[in-house]
């Protein structure tokens, strides 16, 4: 696991109004979240904690923040609501039991050891799942996210098409994310599926708020945590009265999108993902 770099003071506004904490020392340590970070996030009804999925330092920071914030509910991108309900009677610090219960080895997510501290820190909160099964991708691509989502599509604004310029930007991002190897006709479908996943996570947050009164923490990738296009957009549409804060976690200062707060960590050594498209 890569260690988190010490981050101690607010710096200049970056990435559309987010604050990144400046690096005071480049000595790697396992650092607890700074008190001002915890205080800032504790003021929100909903805290969205972003991550790069295979960065262990990001997961440790999520775990530390869950421990400090003690939310009443945690919403997970990685599991369905049905899976979340099976965790109610389980000791979440028992990594082997949780992994087996969720059939994590077949999930397609990075190794459970990365997520184990986060689940352990969520003990005592009520668990909710916001995952959209990959098996529904075909139906979404054929009929659209709004039709699949059902009558609540209008509540979350999922029934409103993206502006043409925004659609083009997101399609270009999808092409880049897939190493410029994706057929062009697939790009609108990928954008649509991403919107569905954002709205589904937002719906799970609303359910968590209704069930527990909040506060609610969301464990998800940086892409869903983005203020400019992710879960906060759909959540604010459905529940404009609640306060939402979004944390992005960058690697060596690099992260795409807008967040209320950005914390930085060392990059993870990983193979070039584009090599898979060259085979």
How would you concisely characterize the structure shown here?
The protein is α/β, with parallel strands linked by helices.
Structural notes for this entry:
The chain is built from 11 helices and 8 strands. The protein is of the alpha/beta class. The protein has one domain: Rossmann fold. An 8-stranded mixed beta sheet has the order 1-2-8-7-3-6-4-5, sandwiched between helices. α2 packs parallel to α5 and α8 packs across α9. It is globular. The N terminus is likely disordered.
| Secondary structure tally, helices | 11
Q: And the CATH topology? A: Rossmann fold
Chain-averaged pLDDT:
88
Percent in strands: 15-25%
CATH class: Alpha Beta
CATH architecture: 3-Layer(aba) Sandwich
* Succession of helices and strands: EEHEHEHHHEHHHHEHHEE
Poorly predicted regions are 1-30
**Biggest pleated-sheet summary:** 8 strands, mixed
First CA to last CA: what distance?
A: 29 Å
| Domain module count | 1
State the helicity in percent bands: 25-40%
As a whole number of angstroms, the C-alpha radius of gyration is 18 Å
Structural class by sheet pairing and helices: alpha/beta
Please report the total strand number as a whole number.
8
What would the principal axes of the Cα set say about the shape? globular
């Amino acid at each position: 696991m890569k260690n988190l770099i010490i981050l101690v003071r607010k710096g200049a506004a970056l990435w559309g109004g987010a604050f990144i904490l400046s690096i005071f020392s480049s000595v790697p340590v396992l650092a607890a979240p700074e008190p001002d970070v915890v205080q800032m996030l504790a003021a929100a009804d909903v805290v969205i904690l972003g991550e790069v999925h295979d960065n262990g330092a990001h997961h440790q920071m999520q775990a530390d923040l869950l421990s400090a914030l003690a939310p009443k509910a945690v919403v997970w991108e990685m599991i369905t609501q049905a899976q979340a309900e099976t965790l109610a009677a389980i000791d979440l610090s028992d990594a082997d039991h949780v992994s087996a219960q969720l059939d994590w080895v077949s999930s397609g997510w990075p190794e459970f050891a990365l997520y184990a501290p986060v689940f352990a820190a969520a003990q005592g909160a009520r668990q909710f799942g916001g995952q959209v099964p990959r098996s529904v991708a075909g139906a979404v691509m054929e009929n659209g996210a709004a039709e699949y989502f059902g009558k609540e599509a209008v509540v979350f604004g999922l029934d409103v098409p993206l502006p043409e310029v925004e659609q083009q930007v997101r399609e270009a991002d999808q092409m880049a994310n897939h190493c410029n190897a994706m057929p062009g006709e697939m790009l609108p479908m990928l954008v649509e599926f991403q919107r569905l996943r954002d709205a589904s996570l937002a719906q799970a947050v609303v359910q968590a708020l209704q069930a527990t009164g909040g506060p609610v923490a969301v464990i998800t990738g940086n892409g869903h945590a983005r203020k400019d296009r992710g879960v906060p957009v759909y959540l604010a549409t459905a529940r404009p009265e609640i306060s939402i804060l979004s944390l992005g976690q960058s690697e060596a200062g690099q992260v795409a999108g807008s967040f209320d707060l950005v914390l930085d960590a060392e990059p993870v050594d990983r193979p070039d993902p584009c090599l898979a498209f060259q085979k």
